[in-house]
User: Fold this.
Amino acid sequence: MNAQVLAWSRAINRPRLAIALLVFALALAIRIHGISQHFWLLADQIRDWAIALRPFSELPLVGPPTHVGGYTIGPAFYWILWTLRVLFGPWFDNLPHAGGIGQAALQSLADALLLVAIWKRTGSPWIALATIVIVATAAFDVSLAALVWNPPMGAALAKLAIAAVLADWHRGSIVRAAITAAIAWSAVHAYTGAIFVVLGVFTAMLIDPFLRGDRTVAARNAAVIAVAVLLLQLPLVVFQLTKPRDAAMGAVTDSLSRVLSGESPPELLKSLNGFVHAVQVIEFMPGSLPGLGWLLLIFSGIVSVRYLNDPALLSVTVLPQLAAIAGYSLFLEDLDAYYYLSLMPATVLTFVLAVTAMPSARFARATAVVTLVVALAFVPTRLRNAATMFQMPQYRILVDASRKVRHFGQPMQQIRTDFALPPSSNAEFLFEVLGGTIDRRAPWICVIRANGDVTFSQVPVS
Assistant:
């Protein structure tokens, strides 16, 4: 009998596995299409890939600098990027688009696991597929997913943590609970804006066993979360002991202190508008959806009522959105759309659950199928739009030319181009990655032409 039950269980899981593998492959293909031709090689990518090329022992103890001052609160981004470089780099001469492929693979893996988790949670492959199609083909998200950049990695890790909660994976053992907590907090290491999703994940890990009457497990999970956070913050402690003048997240702490002291009021309306604008930009660009703010409010209300008996699901769907609106009201700087990348799976799942919240199972299934069909119909438009965003078409020219300069076999005093590059890019970086040497005392200067040709000239050196 047990053998029959096991065989039946495996048979049920085969469709999920097959579809999850297909979703992973398609999402990855979409994200890395043409990456070796137009990889976005700007200052952040150059800095972080250069760090990933170092030995692991030389990685920073904190995350990347932020554009509002300070740095993220832990090194998980660099740990993971270094691992991706080790895994993918040798296949692509350690060029930076290898890191983009690695990050796209991580993002696509998160999509596949989230698909399985939603399918398991709702019992509906249509709800799961509709959610993932909308999330994974958003033009803004597709164009950023294959970059060496910390916000998309934070979003991928947050997505993995949501999947663990929705699949009840964290319930299996204390080790699984610890892994879930560590993945969630690593998302905050990668990008601070993921904190609102992580708050929902931690809430789910605590409230779920508590409401089931298992307070021992609730207390155990609280201890696991505390230990995971504490251990992951040890690198920051060491860093601050050695470099006490470097403050983490200076703009965030400054905003909080101004609000808490009464110097500035919370900017709730700005935060609400920022969230609605981010959903518009990430999920609906280049089109628009009138009344989007009201729709988000209505959908959250519907899901809250429909899934009142599933607090863990509400903790990773509705709660992160409310927490982000409240949290960003305490942040007095401008709000960019990418701040909300990690919230999009929660927002989209809320939308899909709301439109399929029908009293009849038959109507719910039909609505989910229609939602999936509509989402698929918009995929070509979304991907065409993604092809116009966050790309650097000069990348292929720089790669090919850098190989030619490396083959010349001489140290270069300077490499420049006769065509414009983005201001923060660097024509010499790829040559150095390929093993070339930049020596300002060398007699050779190279110019890369727009057609990919290179010319060398000798100059006198003092």
Remarks:
- The radius of gyration is 24 Å.
